[in-house]
Amino acid sequence: MNGLAGTGTLLRLALRRDRIMLPAWVYAITAMTISTGYSFGTLYGTASAREQFARGMNTNGSLRALYGTVYDAGVGGLTAWRMGAFGAALAGLMSILLVVRHTRADEEDGRLELVGAGAVGRRAPLTAALLTVLLADLLLAALVAAGLAALGQPAGGALAFGSALAVTGLVFAALAGVAAQAVETGRAASGTASAALGLGFVLRAAGDSDSRTHWLSWLSPLGWSEQVRPFADNRWWAVALGLLAACALAASAYVLVGRRDLGAGLLPRRPGPASAAPALRSQLALARRLQSATLYGWCAGFAVAGAVFGSVAKGAATLVGDNQQVGDILHRIGGQGSFADAYLATILGLFGMVAAVYAVQCVQRLRGEETAGRAEPVLASAVSRSAWAGGHLLFALLGSAVLLATGGLAAGLTAGATLGDLPRRLGALVGGALVQLPAVWLTAAAVLAVFGLRPRWTSAGWGMPAAFLVIGWLGPVLRLGRPILDLSPFTHLPHLPGGTVSAQPLLWLTAVAAGLAAAGLAGLNRRDLG
């Protein structure tokens, strides 16, 4: 049989399965890019203001490490600077998740074994997954280029920037294809490829922070994306470099897929003991076993992010300079304290929204266990449905607290070291991070309610943290009305550090979260599994 037989059918199936997730990813990255370009055009309306802003960025090593180097002071160049590293990282993450979803995850769940029993070639699933990502990245490039061109930016630079994002996504898609052949589980494949993405971001940041270590950025696909220099030099050869790397990795994945058995990986898992340890003989222990690795990875990310954002608290004043309009927006997002407090409160608010993504992921694991058939044998024993769901919910509630405490602690240590008064800064930032918990818990409880009452809609729960992020970050910039801003639970939280604390909104949010969680558990106890 032809190794690519059935690729077209699998491609149509993948596009159908991703008809919600794929457009959501593309739309989110495109909207962030276009809104960034619009904001730069509005807030820095003159060439002199943009030149001053660019000089401030390029003379601050910590900010260069975070965002990269400004190569062009126009609106397009500043947009490419602001969204280059983060946009490319998001495109890479989207590509990793799509490839693993249609290769190793399907193989782990037994879907590819059923599909492979028909007229489907051995390499068709991998090919369909890569083609799905190719279409997604091409659509992303086209929309980003069209959006920036609609803002009046040069078409060549807009196309170069869109191409840089797309090629970065293709590199990490091919890398995910290699990881899917090396390990035996979808989570391990996603974790391996995501770790490579994180390493790439670190290498790019280290290279941009100091001219003496600039060579490090060339070791990262994110660094190649930056070296395209859209709107400045438009280096198309850097795009070609990314394409060559993607082709080489994809070729490696095709070679490896033919050298292993279906369901196995090139790096097989070590078998565990025949009998479980006493610490693993409970439902809570099972939830800990399933969720702990994810929590450790998120903690590492929050620690790094907290340290980075806290370290630039002093230099972040360069972002504003004498631009009163930018300062007003930052104060609307982060409160009315000093500029440093408003900046740090804004970052802690972002940490809360990201922690909500982790909480949703923990709750979504319940639906994954149910649809994969792993929940049924557990519930056939002396384990109640409430206890089973409660174990995973506990990780959503306490795990998010651990994440926020970790991020606040890291930010407090670095901000205290740069701004002075370490004890006060440390306590204020840890407290400011933990005050986000009621809104995070409400988000997790809302998804649990959907899981218990309308399980088929559970995947739509990812829209909640995305909507809250859009409202919280774009709402103040666009001056949206209070009724719209109040739709996000994070809007009702105090802005710390620098703001005043009121217990009333915190108690109300916690009470609503408890009610939603109770409704979700009650619905789960009354409905059929599956």
UniProtKB/TrEMBL annotation:
Superkingdom is Bacteria
Keyword set for this entry? Membrane, Transmembrane, Transmembrane helix
What are the TM regions of this chain, as residue ranges?
A: 20-40, 80-100, 128-151, 157-176, 188-207, 236-257, 295-313, 342-360, 393-413, 433-453, 465-485, 505-524
Keyword Calcium assigned: no
User: Can you name this protein?
Assistant: ABC transporter membrane-spanning protein
Provide the species name. Answer: Kitasatospora cystarginea
